[in-house]
């Protein structure tokens, strides 16, 4: 899957430069519930470090800009690292705690923040329908693990989970 050690290289750059970040998305959800296979690693970087991190990454990785993300890749790796650049996610870094992800202990967004991110994603009409279905499944997984979070999910999403 990753003959190039993309993950190790990427995390090494973040650690070497004391970058504050947290894991979000499906891998973040996997830290709190029974994991599902995913080739994506979604993270948020502290806003004050984002520009400097992009410059650091550009020296060793392929970068591709999208409206709300910066994708990081290298030849020989199927792993996709996506840095979320939507400002709504920036505060997630401050509430992150260490959890196990992909066999590593990494800062992961709180379960409440992960749920909020999945709600935003599920409501985004610009996302592919298949991605929104995965977001709904992740919301359901989070609610199974932590039923007290149900009140944080809009009724139009809850109705789709039944």
Summarize this structure as a short list of keywords or feature phrases.
7 strands, Beta Polymerase, domain 2, 162 residues, alpha+beta, 5-stranded mixed sheet
Q: What would you say about this model in short?
A:
Helices cover 40% and strands 22% of the residues. The chain is an alpha+beta fold and 162 residues long.
SSE blueprint and pairings:
Layout: H1 6-16, E1 21-24, H2 25-30, E2 40-45, H3 47-58, E3 62-66, E4 69-73, E5 80-84, E6 97-101, E7 104-108, H4 111-122, H5 129-145, H6 155-161
Parallel strand pairs: 2-5
Antiparallel strand pairs: 1-2, 3-4, 4-5, 6-7
Helix pairs in contact: 4-5
Explain the overall architecture.
Helices cover 40% and strands 22% of the residues. The chain is of the alpha+beta class. The strands form two sheets. The chain has a five-stranded mixed β-sheet. The radius of gyration is 15 Å and the shape is globular. It starts with 5 loop residues before the first helix and ends with a helix.
Mean pLDDT: 94
CATH classification, class level: Alpha Beta
- CATH architectural name: 2-Layer Sandwich
User: Sheet with the most strands?
Assistant: 5 strands, mixed
Overall outline:
globular
Q: Which value, in Å, is the CA radius of gyration?
A: 15 Å
Number of domains: 1
Proportion of residues in β-strands:
15-25%
Number of strands: 7
Structural category: alpha+beta
What is the distance, rounded to the nearest whole angstrom, between the alpha carbons of the first and last residues?
35 Å
Q: At the third CATH level, what is the topology name? A: Beta Polymerase, domain 2
